[in-house]
Structures are given as C-alpha cells and as structure tokens.
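As noted in the main text, all predictions were made from sequence alone. Below is one such record, for YbgC/FadM family acyl-CoA thioesterase.
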Amino acid sequence: MQPSEYDRPYQGGFVGGEHRFALTVYFEDTDTAGIVYYANYLKFMERARSDMLRAAGIDQRAAKEDGTGVYAVAEVAIRYLRPARLGDELLVVSTVDQVRAASVLIHQRVMRGAEQLTDARVIAAFIDANDRPRRQPRAWVDKFKEISQG
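Prediction:
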C-alpha cells in the first residue's frame, strides 16, 4: 500500500498567537436531542490543547516517560453559548493567557464559522510522578511566553 496524505492524523497549528484545531461533529458526539453532549466539548478542547503542545514542540509522551512531569487540568470554567449539531465543522481556538511557574492558563473557544459556541478558561498544572505541582521546564515556559505574544 502506498503512503498517502490521508494516513496521518489531523494536526492543527498556529496562526499568529492562536492555535487552531478543526474537527467535525459525528453522531457519537451528540445526545438524544441531536446536539453535542456538553462533556464532549471538553474532549474537543483536550485534543486541541494536546495538539497545541505538539505544535509548540513540547513532547508530552517523552516528558512522562523520562519523569519530567505531565500536565493535568486543575480547573475549567466553561460557558456554553450555542449548541453544535451533527455534521457541524468546528474550530477550537486556543490561546495562552498566562504562564506561571507550575501552570499555564489557556483560553479556548469552540467556533462554528464566525459563531462562538463555547468560552472556556483552563488551568493546566504541571505535576511530577507523585502528582505534586512542580516547575515547568524552562524551555517550555519560554515557548508558552513566545506563543502568548503571538
């Protein structure tokens, strides 16, 4: 079988200081009312945050494996503005709002075209193998600061 561009998972990227991650709403994402189940927006945003780290050159898997640490969501504040429906093409827009020693504040919006569907603020804490907060690697802090300045 010949390799194809379709063999790679979708990856988002940066446009200025924003990370953009596109996705489509599938049947499994919806509830009995035919709209995206509220918890699935959190999954969409998690995929986008993970992809943002990848696009910034941060290797989460290597950091976990070598004991450097991992990010864990410490807090989420989300406001649901409009529902998404089956077949909608969505865009998760993520920006780094604040970088702290052991955490990062990320603003995430789920968009359908120009229409904003959700507005969320996520605090991702950096923790060690014992689930204790620890300072993020300096290189990562520098990348986040670079991203936040667009």
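The chain has one domain: 23-148. The first strand starts at residue 13 and ends at 15. These features were considered when defining construct boundaries for the mutagenesis experiments described in Section 2.9.
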